[in-house]
Inverse folding.
């Protein structure tokens, strides 16, 4: 068994199509839109490739794809951390160690040739994208912009010499069906109001009429807010603009709060309705008619689940309870939009401040992803 490089448009189509066949009987797996996957992988369309490069590989048996992987060299990561870590991502594989070894060996050889001494993953393409291998919570629903994998992937990675680098924790609040009411206790709301009043904070939703300038505020805060996090890679202006354009049609302004003090924005949160509620039924991954159904459900508030993707505060104002204020705002406003269940994360296992903030508003850990390392 060996893995070969994706060289043609036909190869790329087979690379993209493989998970739809592999996971077709998994009721938890949510098929991404193939159009979005193709754009993500495109070195012409994805601004990630302004500072990175990647190659894609497939393993075949009797002419049929049985596994795939991407090898990723992210110069911005190496400059930020002064290391030689390379990444693998988009890993999908049948339950066969020989196939997994062939894929990992192909990625390792490519990364070694680029000068890397560690292979880390899965990350598709970085910690700013989908990352981590699911190791706990296999029976939970897959939420927006999170990966899902079979349980046997753990054995495939660990059998190929990978060891834990870091766990990423997911938190949730409410009943999974997103329908049962779970309001916040009055005492918590009083505590949040006290924090807000004493620190002279103002909280407001995103202003869609001034979207471009709002995104400029996000750029100003984002890299400050996460720069000390393990594995953090700054996002370029082009990457933030690219994501903003993708998110804009599905943003609910109330779920994107900005915190201001003395007229200056010092933090923000980003939550989106869990679009996977709609995508789950779209087993083919085609854009239409699912896009129309999605927009209709958003307009009529038929999606009762959300995911908190980002929560960032500039360093000067950390440790003052502002993270809990943002969580409280998102949950309260989500409740007004008929949302009854929420997921927050991921949060690093060794980030006590963010874990405590989630705890304060009733979020509980329920799922774990893991990043793995292997020496090259």
């Amino acid at each position: 068994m060996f893995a070969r490089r994706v060289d043609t448009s036909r190869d790329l189509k087979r690379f993209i199509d493989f998970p739809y066949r592999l996971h077709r009987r998994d009721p938890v797996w949510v098929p991404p839109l193939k159009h979005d996957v193709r754009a993500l992988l495109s070195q012409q369309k994805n601004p990630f490739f302004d500072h990175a490069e990647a190659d894609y590989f497939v393993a075949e048996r009797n002419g049929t794809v049985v596994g795939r992987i991407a090898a990723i060299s992210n110069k911005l990561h190496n400059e930020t951390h002064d290391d030689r870590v390379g990444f693998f991502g988009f890993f999908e594989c049948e339950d066969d160690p020989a196939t997994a070894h062939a894929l990992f060996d192909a990625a390792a050889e490519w990364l070694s040739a680029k000068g890397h001494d560690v292979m880390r993953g899965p990350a598709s393409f970085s910690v700013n994208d989908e990352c981590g291998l699911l190791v706990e919570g296999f029976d939970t629903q897959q939420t927006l912009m999170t990966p899902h994998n079979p349980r046997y992937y753990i054995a495939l990675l660990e059998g190929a010499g990978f060891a834990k680098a870091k766990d990423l924790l997911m938190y949730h609040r409410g009943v999974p069906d997103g329908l049962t009411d779970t309001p916040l206790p009055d005492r918590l709301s009083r505590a949040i109001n006290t924090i807000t009043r004493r620190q002279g904070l103002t909280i407001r939703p995103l202003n869609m009429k001034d979207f471009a300038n709002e995104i400029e505020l996000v750029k100003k805060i984002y890299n400050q807010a996460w720069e000390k996090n393990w594995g953090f890679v700054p996002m370029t202006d082009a990457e933030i603009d690219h994501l903003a354009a993708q998110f804009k049609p599905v943003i609910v302004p109330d779920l994107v709060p900005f915190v201001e003090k003395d007229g200056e924005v010092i933090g923000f949160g980003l939550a989106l309705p869990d679009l996977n509620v709609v995508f789950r039924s779209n087993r083919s991954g085609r854009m239409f008619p699912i896009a129309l159904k999605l927009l209709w459900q958003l307009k009529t508030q038929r999606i009762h689940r959300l995911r908190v993707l980002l929560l960032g505060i500039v360093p000067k104002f950390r440790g003052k309870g502002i993270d809990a204020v943002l969580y409280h705002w998102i949950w309260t406003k989500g409740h007004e939009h008929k949302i009854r269940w929420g997921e927050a994360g991921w949060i690093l296992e060794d980030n006590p401040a963010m874990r405590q903030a989630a705890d304060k508003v009733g979020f509980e850990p329920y799922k774990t992803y893991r990043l793995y390392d292997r020496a090259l």
Remarks:
- The radius of gyration is 21 Å.
- The chain has a mean pLDDT of 94.
- The longest strand covers residues 163-174.
